[in-house]
Specification:
Layout lengths: L6 E8 L8 E8 L2 E7 L9 E3 L4 E4 L1 E3 L15 H4 L3 E6 L13 H10 L14 H10 L5 E4 L1 E2 H9 L8 H17 L3 E5 L10 H7 L9 E5 L7 H15 L2 E4 L13 H13 L4 E5 L4 E5 L13 H8 L2 H13 L7 H5 L5 E5 L13 H8 L3 H11 L5 E5 L3 H9 L3 E3 L16 H16 L5 H8 L1 H7 L15 E4 L20 E6 L2 E5 L2 E2 L14
Parallel strand pairs: 1-4, 1-5, 6-7, 7-8, 9-10, 10-11, 11-12, 12-13, 13-17
Antiparallel strand pairs: 1-2, 2-3, 5-18, 14-16, 15-16, 18-19, 19-20, 20-21
Amino acid sequence: MPEAVDLVIEGGIVHDGSGRPGYRADVAVSDGRIVAVAAEGRDVPARRRLRADDLIVAPGFIDLHSHADFTLPAYPGAVNSISQGVTSEVVGNCGYSPAPLSADPGTAAEQIATFRALGPDLDWEWRGFGEFLDRLDAARPAVNCVPLIGHGAVRMAALGFDDRPPTTAEARQMHDAVADGLAAGAWGMSTGLVYPPASFASTDEVVEVGASLPHARSLYASHIRNEGAGLLEALDEALTIGRRLRTAVHVSHLKSAGRQSHGKIGAAVDRLIEARRRDARITCDAYPYTAGSTMLSQLLPPWVHDGGIEAMFERLGSDLPRDQIRVDVATGLPGWSNYVEAAGSFEQIRIASVGDRRLAGIEGHSVAELANRDHVDPLTFVFDLLVRDRAATVMIVELMHEDDVTAALRFPATGIGSDQLAVTGPDASVHPRCYGTFAKVLGTYVRERGVLAMAEAIHRMTGLAAEIIGLTDRGRVVPGAVADLVVFDPATIRDQATYGSPTQLAAGVEAVLVDGRFAWDGGRPADLHLGRVLRREAQ
């Protein structure tokens, strides 16, 4: 140990990320690393000492599911994450990554338009995945970023937005783009098989495109093809892809979505337990809310998206396609995740955010309320809004039952992921999970409800998360680990963000260190530019 270390956190209850019970110890930090975890009272010379009596000292939390790669280049501060104790975020999820962009200017413009709901303020001055990571790193975000390359973005770049199989040349182009992303530092590939145009892809296509994954010992993370009536079949598809690729599988935001599917999460968990007994490497993440959030355009059937965003606008401008959409929403389509049916009514679908700030007055209101105000039926309101806002609208949809959320969180292979998106600034209208996920797990599901023990919850947010990703020097409070740390009060930590006030910061987090330096100090921002892109070394 050095004669004088940079910092000693004194007298805290250390939860080291392994899941073992907390114990009282001092944590010494120097040069960005933990150099000692010693018995209380050990006299270590230090340039700074932080008293942590009755506070928990834990590894910085790892958000397993974030879309902040679409916002951090323009809004790197990320106070929503740091204030909860999050120090690293896995980005590039659901098949959406800001790169690669197509070499064809027209197709690239379609990609950018499609991504507008996720990243309206980006300058898009890149093409390849490595170029984007350079841009993200240069922004010096508040949190570390662990990138995945998105199959959806790769598919858009190679064959546009058509509902068809790729040609041999296009399949090779997609495969090479994923390989290039892995070489540039991606930790794996994600899919969003519910989102057009990625939903047009077959299982065989995903396997072919991801064929370089096992050679890099990378992760396959998937927003599976169906989270409602077809949940079990979609889990089977994810397991099949993992088996054929010989790689680990991670199921994004495990849920049983839609009123008719409430109660199905138990069968899904049983399916995952059985797969793990057969040595399948499968894990998942979940968030502690009954409402989800995604683009408003997902209310439309898949065929409306065929050909891209301009083709969608053209269809929405004609009476016959609108009439067919109404029929499909009312009766459903095989395999389609019908959000209107899942929510039960348009009262359960609210506008989270809009791209055109002239429309900001509708944020926070339900589609039913807004349609009634405009004296139109709800679908007409949706059609018109999508055209006016150029499909940049984000919605919040009530989907899950609380019992299913609890069951997903109890599953031992569940990590925590916020699924945050569209945090474009400190006042952006968003789902409260962007500001409250980790604090809500610790405050509501640990302290108040006893769903998880404190040590287990911290393990899910740290050691387990690091293991899922493949991070070897984060997620633990042990000598030699990177000093990404959070110090919080177990008696007061809680989420304060609500659907009505979604940007209220979490309470109870005293300090957050990123790479051994204070990002959050005394319950306030200190330095919100300490993060970097964590690139996996090519193997």
